[in-house]
Structures are given as structure tokens and as C-alpha cells.
């Protein structure tokens, strides 16, 4: 990709879809004169035109795969009453064929509303720009589910040769956010499906990612579904798995018998110091008398008649 093209793409969707003064002037002229030239061959690049819906192909780079049926019905009813307020964006394939860049939800609803034509911006865009524009348009206007975002981010990295920092600039996300989405693609398919379907949240997924064993990931995922575990609870369980089982108490010294405890206390009183009396299984052991300084050591030695 050339340097100039990278700079242009880096400005995001607004730069790519920015209307020029001439385009606005043409649109105003059409409204004032009532001119509606429906000849697709005459549609100027960069202008707003009425495009035949039958001649618009769906964007193959569209990251969204799920569309809310009820939302489409409501939008279609609104279009019947008010018309389509916001034009879609297309690129010309040939004189009688266009390919959708952004606005698939509006296009679907317009079809439901029975429209034959739809207002559209006509743009020039290569495949990389189409992928970027479709993704940015969806993220900015109607959130994709986390898996759709993750898959789209990965496509932009693979197909547009972007680094994570560059991708973050395109979609106005910091690198850590981009990384968190991409890490979802490493989860087992069953967990990815739950994220896609909204059965578990992004918070649940981020906690599960921290488990390195896929078997344990799937097991905890099943617990989340069956018990309705909160994100905080899952995070606690993940930390417990990472820390491993608690150390056994067998390494702790056995409690000192009562008689030996009394001897230990008497010695501590005599030497004005904390005395430790250690006795092994066979009766052998040792006496420890700590000292704080050379003077304190001399005091103890004097008491021992050293």
C-alpha cells in the first residue's frame, strides 16, 4: 500500500465518505428542481443518487452476520412512513451494477418496505477500503457481537497487512482492546459460539482466556452456563486454578507437648528471650536461644556460666 493511501485510510470512515462541496451542490440542485435521474449510467461518482435495489450486490466484506429481525421490521415501517433518511454507500462495479460498501441494514429494511430504488452515495473504493469502511461503519453505528469484531479485526490484519497499532488507529481503539478481541479467537469453538450468541459476556470470555488448558476452559464455561456465574466469581475461580491447590499442612512442625511447652516457657522467662525447643520423633532435639546483639549474647553466656 502506498504512503498516501495509508494516510487516507488512517483518517477513518469520515475522511473516506466525506462529501465534497460539489456533491452537496448537486444534491441541493436535485431537490430544488425535482430532478431524479434514475439512469444508473448517469450516476456520478461521489454524488447522491437513486439506485435500483435490484442492481446492488451485498458487500462480501460485511462483518455483520446477524441482523435483529424485529429491528428490521421496525426500520422498514419507519421507511414506509418517512422514507430513508440516511443514504447507503455503494461503489460502482459497472454501468448497471453496484456493490454495497455500508448500510446493509438500511438496504434490507428498504427491500422489506417495498422500495424499488434507494438513495446512495456512489464512491470509489478498493477491496481493502471496503473492508475497513464496512467494519468501521458497523462498529460506530450498531455494535457487532464480540466474535464478529474479533473476526473482522483478524481479517483486517491478514488481508490489509495491518499491525495491531495501525488497526487500533483505524477503529479508534487502543492496542490492549484490539488484543483482547483477537485473543477470543484462541478460545475453543463452543466458547466462541456462546460469546456470539450472548450466552456469556466479554468479561466472562476475558477471564476464561487466562486459563491455558482448553479442557479446563470448557469445564469452567459449562459451569458458567449451568450455574449462571458472575464475572467476578469466574475471575476468582480462574485465580484459584492458576495458583494451584493449597500447600498441605504436613510440613508444619508438630505441636509441642504440654510438658515441653512448660520447659520452653520457663527457659524463655529465665533468659528473657524467646526460646525455641525442638524435639524429634526419637526424643532428640535442640534448644534455640536467639540474641539481639553482642551485649545480649554476653548476658546469656554469663547466665550459662560460660
UniProtKB/TrEMBL annotation:
<keyword id="KW-0238">DNA-binding</keyword>
<dbReference type="InterPro" id="IPR003115">
    <property type="entry name" value="ParB_N"/>
</dbReference>
<comment type="similarity">
    <text>Belongs to the ParB family.</text>
</comment>
<dbReference type="Pfam" id="PF23552">
    <property type="entry name" value="ParB_C"/>
</dbReference>
<dbReference type="GO" id="GO:0007059">
    <property type="term" value="P:chromosome segregation"/>
</dbReference>
<dbReference type="InterPro" id="IPR036086">
    <property type="entry name" value="ParB/Sulfiredoxin_sf"/>
</dbReference>
<dbReference type="InterPro" id="IPR057240">
    <property type="entry name" value="ParB_dimer_C"/>
</dbReference>
<protein>
    <submittedName>
        <fullName>ParB/RepB/Spo0J family partition protein</fullName>
    </submittedName>
</protein>
<dbReference type="InterPro" id="IPR004437">
    <property type="entry name" value="ParB/RepB/Spo0J"/>
</dbReference>
<dbReference type="Pfam" id="PF02195">
    <property type="entry name" value="ParB_N"/>
</dbReference>
<dbReference type="GO" id="GO:0005694">
    <property type="term" value="C:chromosome"/>
</dbReference>
<keyword id="KW-0159">Chromosome partition</keyword>
<feature type="domain" description="ParB-like N-terminal">
    <location>
        <begin position="49"/>
        <end position="139"/>
    </location>
</feature>
<dbReference type="GO" id="GO:0003677">
    <property type="term" value="F:DNA binding"/>
</dbReference>
<dbReference type="Pfam" id="PF17762">
    <property type="entry name" value="HTH_ParB"/>
</dbReference>
<feature type="compositionally biased region" description="Polar residues">
    <location>
        <begin position="24"/>
        <end position="42"/>
    </location>
</feature>
<feature type="region of interest" description="Disordered">
    <location>
        <begin position="24"/>
        <end position="44"/>
    </location>
</feature>
<dbReference type="InterPro" id="IPR050336">
    <property type="entry name" value="Chromosome_partition/occlusion"/>
</dbReference>
<dbReference type="InterPro" id="IPR041468">
    <property type="entry name" value="HTH_ParB/Spo0J"/>
</dbReference>
Amino acid at each position: 500500500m502506498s504512503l498516501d493511501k495509508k494516510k487516507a485510510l488512517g483518517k477513518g470512515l469520515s475522511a473516506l465518505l466525506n462529501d465534497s462541496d460539489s456533491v452537496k451542490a448537486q444534491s441541493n440542485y436535485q431537490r430544488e428542481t425535482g430532478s431524479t435521474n434514475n439512469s444508473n449510467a448517469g450516476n456520478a461518482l461521489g454524488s447522491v443518487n437513486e439506485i435500483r435495489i435490484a442492481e446492488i450486490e451485498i458487500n462480501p466484506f460485511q462483518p455483520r452476520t446477524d441482523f435483529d429481525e424485529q429491528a428490521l421490521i421496525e426500520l422498514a415501517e419507519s421507511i414506509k412512513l418517512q422514507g430513508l433518511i440516511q443514504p447507503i454507500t455503494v461503489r460502482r462495479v459497472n454501468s448497471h451494477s453496484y456493490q454495497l460498501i455500508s448500510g446493509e441494514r438500511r438496504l434490507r429494511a428498504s427491500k422489506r418496505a417495498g422500495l424499488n430504488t434507494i438513495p446512495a452515495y456512489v464512491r470509489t473504493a478498493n477491496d481493502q477500503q471496503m473492508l475497513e469502511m464496512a467494519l468501521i461503519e458497523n462498529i460506530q453505528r450498531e455494535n457487532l457481537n464480540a466474535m464478529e469484531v474479533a473476526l473482522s479485526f483478524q481479517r483486517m490484519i491478514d488481508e490489509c497487512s495491518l499491525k495491531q497499532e495501525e488497526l487500533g488507529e483505524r477503529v479508534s481503539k487502543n492496542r490492549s482492546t484490539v488484543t483482547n478481541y483477537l485473543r477470543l479467537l484462541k478460545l475453543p469453538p463452543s466458547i466462541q459460539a456462546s460469546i456470539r450468541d450472548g450466552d456469556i459476556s466479554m468479561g466472562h470470555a476475558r477471564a476464561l482466556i487466562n486459563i491455558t488448558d482448553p479442557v479446563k476452559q470448557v469445564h469452567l464455561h459449562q459451569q458458567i452456563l449451568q450455574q449462571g456465574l458472575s464475572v467476578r466469581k469466574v475471575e476468582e475461580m480462574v485465580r484459584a486454578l492458576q495458583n494451584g491447590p493449597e500447600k498441605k499442612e504436613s510440613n508444619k512442625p508438630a505441636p509441642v507437648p504440654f510438658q515441653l511447652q512448660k520447659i520452653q516457657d520457663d527457659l524463655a522467662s529465665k533468659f528473657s528471650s524467646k526460646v525455641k525447643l525442638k524435639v524429634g520423633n526419637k526424643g532428640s532435639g535442640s534448644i534455640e536461644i536467639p540474641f539481639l546483639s553482642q551485649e545480649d549474647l554476653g548476658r546469656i553466656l554469663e547466665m550459662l556460666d560460660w
